[in-house]
Design goal:
The protein is built from 15 helices and 5 strands. The chain has helices at about 1-15, 20-25, 50-60, 65-90, 100-110, 155-160, 185-215, 220-225, 230-235, 240-260, 265-290, 295-310, 325-330, 335-345, 355-375, and strands spanning about 95-100, 115-120, 135, 145-150, 170-175. The protein has a 5-stranded mixed β-sheet with strand order 2-1-3-4-5, with helices on one face.
Amino acid sequence: MSTLGTSRTATGPAQDEGPGALGTRSGTAGSAPPPPAPAGPGPAPRGEFAALAKGMTKELVRDPMALFFSVVFPVLLAGLFVAIMQLTWAGGPYTIAVVGSDAQAARLSAALGDGSQVTAVDGPRAAPEDADAVVAPSADGEALRVVTDPESPSVVSALRDALPGTGWDGRTLEAVGTDGSPPFEPMPFVLPGVLVFALMSLALSATAGTLVSLRANGTLRLLRTTPARPQAILTSLLPARGALGLALLAVAGAVATVLGLLTPLSALTMLLTTALGMWLLMSVGFLLGGTLRSPELTNALSGLLTPLLLMGSGVLFPLELMPEGLAEVLSWNPVALLGDALRHDVTGGVTRHAQWLDWLLIAATAALLTAAAVRAFRWDTEKKN
């Protein structure tokens, strides 16, 4: 007590002197400059977020399991799905009727190049009963309406690939089955599903698991003792994961573009959909990472949630395989809405809801989960008395 009082007495006069006194003393030999003012509770040091983000990025890069399950595993899964569908997907030759001239039918037959029989007819009703597809240009010439046999949906992909050699390149395909249902196409289904799976793994494995580990080893509690603001500490996890999410989107978009499934406009909407999806899934990651107590429990729960959400949302397995009533209910869960929104962005994707409705419900759910994560977040894993 006495030492602290003496120190204050010694420094008091120097602090009480005004600018004039300081100017008078500045010419005195051997005099020291006045001590700096103590740091007050002002804004946090500049550059703190960049430093924290750099540290969290290193933490992510040093976690091989998180990178494997958020990047490598979804790519391997996509390759497996594509291989299975290529082996089981029925191919040509097809029997196709074209509403048009014999010359147009001949060009389509040559473009398909698989021995398909293409005949010209005067109208859809004149097409043979055993035709796998009937192709009719729209009245404005901007689209091709394709009516397919539900048991031969692969003809749509074959027709889309053959368009550049038919004189119809640049036109869109409006495909519908004879039963009124949209035909299923594998790649427009697989690509959005794999992207959702990758983002989900990024949120659960690389975010929730990391947060629980940082809480369990006391790193977050230690960071709370620094001048860094709490919100800066938590949001510093986002840049690395956002960059990884954009990289995953770029890979999926590049594949979709090569396959002719993505247009410049749909690429922009796909970016918006992915941003909303990352908000949704990262809020789940922060909610779990801020409340669970052990990395082992987090990994087990993530391993259980991932297949349940993937199978129960129609992301990797079509909901049409389930009873109609159950499929309708499951189509409204947030992950299913994300998959539905992404399939709006790729050509040939089969969707259930309007995209604006998907976006609205995803954003509303993400906002609720974010509020819950903020309210429930704990900085350590110790039990409170």
